[in-house]
Design brief:
Elements lengths: L4 H13 L6 E5 L6 E15 L5 E3 L5 E5 L8 E11 L2 E9 L6 E5 L3 E3 L11 E6 L5 E5 L5 E2 L5 H14 L7 E2 L4 H8 L14 E2 H9 L4 H12 L2 H14 L5 E2 L8 H4 L13 E2 L1 H14 L2 H6 L3 E4 L2 E4 L17 E9 L3 E9 L5 E7 L4 H12 L8
Helix pairs in contact: 2-4, 2-5, 2-8, 3-5, 4-5, 5-6
Length: 389
């Protein structure tokens, strides 16, 4: 994963442009003032946008408050209607407010249709919620489209590490070769590092496993791959072979870490002709499902908030865990993997099990609000009766 500091700079910039769940705009309208002919109170009724057209104004229509395009999945509650006059024209307008009441105003009735808004994710380019028990998707958004997945790729890397340890052909206490100048330089890189390979220190498989899982260390992941297969190239071939054995038709790997070749080239670890690992949200969810099924310890390990490894703090950036900003107790989130590069955007694989329900696996790719949208997606998944245990 690239440096997380970049995220907060990006969020600070976006916050200046956005407000709340949608894009709220307050600007002076160029049109002349509307006058009120009549106003009637209505029983509170749910509506949602008919299309991306339309905007919410103050009653005089000299100030635009929000656009329908900026609130694609919002339910609006109508409590009044009014006949407004503008020049020689009259029209019926509804007074609307979102659920929190943070955005409210008047909109022409033709821009709305009755009923609550269908569920959707505003920011994720690709997403899926999968029933872990059945392996079936309960909700998806362009889930079969392959795209760069950044450090979410490490789920496959960690699977193959666990497979080698589990088979007895390797041990948690095996010392991993970390002498590569490229990997040492990578650990010192502000944008591509995360874990320092210190001169004279010996790092075990277990050390680098936690560095790769929790802190998303790229050099740790590559070093582990070389330990598994003997070389970086052979390990990537093994990643693709494993994907093929699972019939993942939308998964192609060129990197053990999730960094793109445009970054890896400087450290001597570029591989293949493609720039990035290309995997669909569905295939990412299936990788996570295999990982949990075959090596359930990943859930215990994935729930660790931070861990000291050889004097270095490896910090888990999963902000849905207990005690974190986006934690929701009912969801019982205990994993699984974050990821970011500028090309892939913010990616997150989440999993948890609500009491009385099947475990859910969620994937959001290229999503600036990866934690809030994952939380919404998990709650949506649990609204389906098929998720009942």
């Amino acid at each position: 994963m690239r440096a997380h500091k970049a995220k907060w700079a990006a969020l600070a910039f976006l916050f200046a442009l956005t407000v709340g769940a949608g894009v709220s705009v307050q600007e002076t309208a160029h049109a002349a003032v509307y006058t009120t002919v009549s106003t009637t109170n209505l029983t509170k009724t749910a509506y949602h946008k008919k299309s991306t057209a339309g905007a919410i104004y103050n009653k005089a229509h000299n100030r635009k408050l929000a656009t329908m395009k900026g609130y694609p999945n919002t339910t609006w509650y109508v409590t009044q209607k009014a006949t407004l006059k503008h020049g020689n024209s009259k029209g019926i307008y509804y007074y609307v407010a979102n659920k929190s009441g943070a955005v409210k105003g008047w909109i022409w009735h033709g821009y709305l249709k009755k009923g609550k808004a269908p569920f959707g994710l505003k920011y994720a380019k690709n997403a899926i919620a999968m029933d872990y028990t059945t392996g079936k998707a309960v909700w998806s958004k362009k889930a079969n489209t392959a795209r760069p997945i950044a450090s979410v790729s490490k789920l496959m890397t960690l699977y193959l590490v666990l497979q080698k340890v589990g088979s007895g052909s390797g041990s948690w206490n095996d010392v991993v070769n970390t002498s590569s100048k490229g990997l040492i330089a990578m650990g010192q890189s502000a944008s591509c590092g995360g874990f320092l390979f210190k001169s004279g220190h010996k790092y075990t498989v277990q050390d680098l496993y936690y560095a790769a899982l929790l802190d998303s260390s790229n050099n740790a992941a590559i070093a582990l791959g070389k330990w598994v297969a003997g070389s970086n190239a052979k390990f990537i071939q093994q990643m693709n072979a494993q994907a093929k054995s699972w019939n993942l038709g939308k998964a192609s790997f060129v990197s053990a870490s999730g960094l793109e070749n445009s970054d890896l080239k400087a450290f001597g670890y570029a591989y293949g002709s493609a720039n990035a690992n290309m995997v669909s949200a569905k295939d990412v969810a299936l990788i996570a499902r295999h990982l949990i099924q075959d090596y359930p310890r990943i859930l215990t390990d994935g729930a660790i908030g931070s861990k000291t490894v050889d004097g270095q703090t490896t910090y888990n950036y999963n902000n849905l865990l207990a005690g974190r900003k986006y934690y929701q107790s009912a969801l019982n989130v205990d994993g699984l993997k974050t990821g970011y590069t500028p090309l892939a955007g913010y990616c997150f694989v989440g999993t948890g099990q609500k009491t009385g329900k099947h475990r859910v696996i969620t994937v959001v790719l290229h999503d600036i609000n990866e934690f809030t949208e994952t939380r919404s997606l998990m709650n949506k998944a649990y609204s389906y009766s098929s998720m009942n245990a």
